[in-house]
Amino acid sequence: MALIVQKYGGTSVGSIEKIQNVARKVIEEHKNGNRMVVVLSAMSGQTNKLIELAHQMTEDPDCRELDVLISTGEQVSIALFSMAVKSMGYEACSLLGFQVGIKTDQIYGKARIQEIETARIFQELEKNQIVSVAGFQGLDDDGNITTLGRGGSDTTAVALAAALNADVCEIYTDVDGVYTTDPNVCLKARKMESISYDEMLEMASLGAKVLEIRSVEFAKKFNVPVHVRSTFSNERGTMVVAEAKDMEKVTVSGIAFNKNEARITIAKVPDKPGIAGKIFDPLMKAGIVVDMIVQNTSEEGLTDLTFTVIKADYNNSMKVLKEVAKEIGAEKVLGDENISKVSIIGVGMRTHAGVAQKMFNTLARENINIMMISTSEIKISVVIEEKYTELAVRVLHEAFGLDKPTAE
Ligand code: ADP
Ligand code: ASP
Ligand code: MG
Q1: Which of 266, 315, 359, 364 has its CA 20 to 30 A from that of 228?
Q2: Distance from the alpha carbon of residue 137 to the mean position of ligand 2, in angstroms
Q3: From CA 249, how far away is CA 349, in angstroms rounded?
Q4: Choice from 48, 199, 210 to test ligand 1 binding pocket (greatest atom count within 8 A of CB)
Q5: In this structure, is the dihedral angle defined by the CA atoms of residues 276, 277, 282 and 286, taken in order, positive or negative?
Q6: Residue 236: how many CB atoms within 10 A of its CB?
Q7: 79: nearest Cα among 12, 164, 24, 16
Q8: Does ligand 1 come within 6 angstroms of the Cβ of 10?
Q9: Within 10 A of 367 (CB to CB), how many other CB atoms are there?
Q10: Residue with the nearest Cα to atom 21 of ligand 1?
Q11: pLDDT value at position 351?
């Protein structure tokens, strides 16, 4: 008898019929003798609607109240799911984050799970119940409701699987696994049988939203086997595991993109020691995370500093930096929201030369201008104009042979 944690995303629970479909799938596994814990997202579009409502109420919604509001989507899903299970003749119990004891830190909107109590869930499982848990939410030390950041139900599921010592964590979604790139963008994308935690971490952090990054961090830390698969078929999906087969042989194993960043340049900054700190400290204090950073060589004692931030932080960043620019005597602050970051990923890159060159030449052939570059041992990212994202993904996918089963 296995203990299985399953998570169903928004599109999988987007209607009454779809929730009934999920209930039938879960009951099947329950009938096979497994203990079932099911994490659900809000019905598709609901979280966005709630955020929109908050912004209709006020320009800058209070972050505590925003979390109270946006955590409600998941409450609807688990209640309807439990009703569906009961109507089909089985025992069920839905639990909110606080009822389970999902403890988080106090950062509203991007809280981190610190601890999960397991007693209540085991108590319900003992009673032969199918337990459903609201994804995306927790409780801080002062008893406030927190949410985990967009896509956070994945994290709830993997963290629960770790805490309960589940046999597997199954992530059910609208695609049937992790692909070499987003299959909705590149028709030639190929489903992977397995992917290593490290590569999945890179893919997720560089924009592949099929798994939320913190869920992969949890999976890696606690060695949780994660199976990403489709809600709408019984086919095997992709296993996310410590070591994926043959990965070292493949140079580039995936391509990710992120349209959710904006580029900011502070032009003609006096090039003196300590200047970078003066620019980035106020951003950090405002809770803004900076991603890629490029500093040009200085000319006549002046330099340009360019970096990216997530779009949601763009307006705030511009506001903070205009003040900073005045203080440090920089000439101006320029911003561009129409950019995207395209990345190639692969642990095999460590040992293969010429990968960067191939990437740059491939983009050049399509006349795609590269604005920024950043590299690590297992990835290369470039910033390009947003409108070329899909084209860049497709030509890179082909150039690195990702459409072929034995990519080199
Ligand atoms: P859910 O609502 O089930 O959490 P998401 O929309 O968050 O689903 O994630 C699934 C989506 O992730 C897919 O529809 C697909 O467009 C996107 N995606 C991006 N990169 C990849 C990839 N490499 N493999 C599979 N899906 C990907
Ligand atoms: N409902 C939340 C969101 O839309 C969490 C999730 O679906 O994972 O981001
Ligand atoms: Mg998701």
Answers
A1: 359
A2: 10
A3: 9
A4: 210
A5: positive
A6: 13
A7: 16
A8: yes
A9: 8
A10: 182
A11: 77
Residue 231's CB: how many other CB atoms inside 10 A? 20
Dist CA 204 CA 348 (whole Å)? 18
Q: Shortest CA distance to 212 belongs to which of 290, 148, 289, 146? A: 148
Q: pLDDT tens, 358-376?
A: 999 999 999 999 999 999 9
- For residue 79, the one-letter residue type is A
Q: What pTM value is reported for the model?
A: 0.93
Q: Whose CA is nearest to atom 5 of ligand 2?
A: 151
Select from 186, 190, 156 the least CA-distant residue to 176. Answer: 190
Q: Percent of the chain beyond pLDDT 70?
A: 98
Q: Which two tokens stand for residue 367?
A: 């006349």
Quote the radius of gyration of the chain (alpha carbons, Å). 23
Lookup: tokens for 349 = 């890159």
| Residue whose entry in the numeric block shows the structure tokens 């293969």 | 352
Rounded-to-integer distance, Cα 321 and Cα 315, Å: 10
One-letter identity of residue 341: K
DSSP 230-280: ETT-----EEEESS-TTGGG-S--EEEEE--EEEEEEEEEE--TTHHHHHH
> Is the CB of residue 255 less than 8 Å from the CB of residue 342?
yes
Residue 284, token pair as written in the block: 């950090």
Residue 338: pLDDT above 90?
Answer: yes
